[in-house]
Specification:
- The chain is mostly helical and 74 residues long.
Length: 74
């Protein structure tokens, strides 16, 4: 929420060349959409990395179970 607020204030501080209220609003909305799109991309990459790490851990446990190196209590 703070990120979006910060981007919005940044966009309002750097208005487009045409200074009517609609142009300022459109410019601010455009910059906010771009920021949120980038944030979503970063969030997706983080989730994919966490999922990959969990899958790697599962593969290690499967290998231990298949090799009988894992007791039923583990």
């Amino acid at each position: 929420c703070e990120m979006v607020r910060g981007r919005w204030l940044e966009a309002v501080a750097s208005p487009p060349r045409v200074f009517c209220a609609v142009d300022v609003w459109h410019h601010s909305a455009k910059l906010s959409r771009q920021a949120m799109k980038g944030w979503g991309t970063n969030l997706g990459a983080e989730l994919r990395a966490r999922k990959g790490a969990l899958l790697d851990q599962i593969k290690v446990l499967d290998g231990l179970a298949d090799g009988h190196d894992l007791s039923p209590d583990d």
